[in-house]
Amino acid sequence: xxxxxxxxxxxxxxxxxxxxxxxxxxxxxxxxxxxxxxxxxxxxxxxxxxxxxxxxxxxxxxxxxxxxxxxxxxxxxxxxxxxxxxxxxxxxxxxxxxxxxxxxxxxxxxxxxxxxxxxxxxxxxxxxxxxxxxxxxxxxxxxxxxxxxxxxxxxxxxxxxxxxxxxxxxxxxxxxxxxxxxxxxxxxxxxxxxxxxxxxxxxxxxxxxxxxxxxx
Length: 216
Known about the structure:
mainly alpha
């Protein structure tokens, strides 16, 4: 379906950083680039706005969110409030099958290249999905569908900021953070696991804040 293709192309372009933070997303230019109608482009733009990957500005059209947008800190605060609670529940309730899924998800994350030379300094789609799956698997032992759906929404809303954060702090050892999360969860050490998770989430948000010249 044409509208789906245009939406997927636009979403991927924003995620790759083809459109810089705060830059306008002009329907006319996008329609010309894709060889489609303005109606198809506007439909795609409305969808990416719904995912938090673009803003619809009164009398100004559409734009990529800015680094300074307060939403990133609000989303990070929401995740720091909710995910440690869900992780603790998951550690308490998860069975042996959950343990096996966590180990498999972490193995996949470790074995998936985060970057490839031909794609530049951007996450590969495969790594981004492995990353999401690892965090989701850590939590799905809780058995609470409503909480997991909340995680899914917050994850999608924070994906763009997470990618920006990685590019602004290339020296961060995310692999070690993930390893510590896996070890603490499988050891059923809820206190350590939740502390590691909070720090993990805080570092992502702090990089964006630091980039604005403010203290965290």
